[in-house]
Amino acid sequence: MEKKNTNYSIKVAAQAFYLEEQSDPAHDRYVFAYTVLIQNQGNVAARLLSRHWIITDANSKVEEVRGEGVVGEQPYLRPGEGFQYTSGAILDTSVGSMQGSYQMLADDGVTFDAEIPPFVLSIPRTLH
Questions:
Q1: C-beta of residue 86 within 8 angstroms of C-beta of residue 120
Q2: Taken in order 34, 35, 40, 41, is the CA torsion positive or negative?
Q3: Closest among 28, 49, 46, 44 to 91, alpha carbons compared
């Protein structure tokens, strides 16, 4: 039986919110905020070096965003520690999705990717 490597285990969870006051549906501008919680569930401390987002709208338009850190920081996470931040995205459609990965550097010199599972950006549905 293969032993799972538990040294490098980063859990990522995200939740999105529609920002109606910043959006302008008449001009195809839908603004969303999202809060991300990153938790080191591994045995080795690691620093988040960079991010890679894949943002897809309802027209299948894909935008890839790469950059250093998150919200101007490169958080260092010891085992059991977490980091939470809020950022935003603007879409041309009322529905879309985001996913991607964080590029991590562990204290022992190993680099690895922490997967960001897909999550939905959507305006709230109103019931009449």
A1: no
A2: negative
A3: 28
For the segment 46-85, what is each residue's pLDDT rounded down to a tens digit? Answer: 999 999 999 999 999 999 999 999 999 999 999 999 999 9
How does pLDDT run across 26-45, given as a tens digit for each residue? 999 999 999 999 999 999 99
- For 10-118, CATH number out of 2.60.40.1470, 2.40.160.40, 3.40.50.300, 3.30.450.20 equals 2.60.40.1470
Q: Which two tokens stand for residue 111?
A: 């680099």
Of 91, 88, 107, 7, the C-alpha closest to 47 is 107
The letter for the amino acid at 73 is E
Domain ranges of the chain: 10-118
